[in-house]
Amino acid sequence: MNGAVAMALLAQMSKWSRLGDGFRPGARSGDATVFVVMGILAAIGGLIAVIVAQNRKRNDMSVRCDDPEKLFRELCLAHDLPVITQRSLRQLASARKFDHPAEIFLSPAAFDTSDLPASAGLSDLQVQDLRARLF
Fold first, then answer.
1. How many domains would you assign to the chain?
2. Which residue in 127, 55, 115 sits closest to 85, CA to CA?
3. Rounded (5°) CA angle 32-33-35
4. Are 101 and 68 a contacting pair, CB within 8 Å?
5. Which of 1, 21, 79, 118 pairs with 102 at a CA distance of 20 to 30 A?
6. Cα 26 to Cα 35: distance, rounded to the nearest angstrom
7. Comparing 119 with 134, which gets the higher pLDDT?
8. What gap in Å lies between CA 106 and CA 68, rounded to an integer?
9. Which domain holds residue 89?
């Protein structure tokens, strides 16, 4: 049985011996291609690093700033609100015509559904649930 396996492997030897032909010292298939690929990979890595750094800076809640959007995100984190709830709060703040969405956290009267425009896209139940979570 071992002899049959050895013969089968030897029969496949020609395929394996040709595997590294492009990497032999005598074969020059384009050294510039390697540098181009390395440059592209370095550019992609640099772009990813910049995006990650900006995202970390944007969400660093330990640094004081004068950004209403960051204040809204920080208040949502403090209240442990999921993204769907945050979206609903933004819609409600927009319907109430607040300058900054974080103002919604200061106004329990904004959760009154009697004068809520239909264009807000929020149901009475959603608004009451938001009010119960925050106040």
1. 1
2. 127
3. 65
4. yes
5. 118
6. 19
7. 134
8. 13
9. 68-134
- Domain membership of residue 54 (yes or no) is no
For residue range 50-107, list pLDDT tens digits in order: 999 988 877 776 777 778 888 898 899 889 999 999 999 999 999 889 999 999 999 8
Q: Is the pTM of this model over 0.90?
A: no
By three-state DSSP, how is residue 77 classified?
helix
Is 15 inside any structural domain?
A: no
Mean pLDDT score across all residues of the chain: 81
Structural domain includes residue 124: yes
Tokens of residue 29, six digits: 């298939």
In sequence order, the 6+-apart residues with CB closer than 8 A to the CB of 29 are 22
The backbone torsions φ and ψ at residue 61, rounded to the nearest 5 degrees and listed phi first, read -85, -5
Residue 30: is its pLDDT beyond 90?
A: no
CA distance 131 to 135: 6
Q: Residue 56: enclosing H or E segment and its boundaries?
A: helix 31-58
Give a yes or no: residue 129 inside a domain: yes
